[in-house]
Amino acid sequence: xxxxxxxxxSAIVIAVLSSRYKNKEKTDKGFxxxxxxLSYRRKWIRTAIIGPFIISSAFYLxxxxxxTTMAKMLVIPTMLIxxxxxxxxxxxxxxxxxx
Length: 99
Description:
The protein has 99 residues and is mostly helical. The chain contains 3 helices and no strands.
């Protein structure tokens, strides 16, 4: 139950920010802290930069004795699959918007 409240709050924040920046001009140069204000090209770059941290986190979770085997079997593949899907989606949308 302790993970439900942060998940609901995160979903609400994502929905609000996504709708707020839906039809606005996206930033393609320079640094922007807000992910929703970025173009798909910049989202892809940011996702690619985060890749080594995702992989090192997966190794840390795998070799950490503080997590059960079931937690490792659920969290690590989910984390890696979401990362790869986000990378592919942002690349696809970047190329689609470019044409």
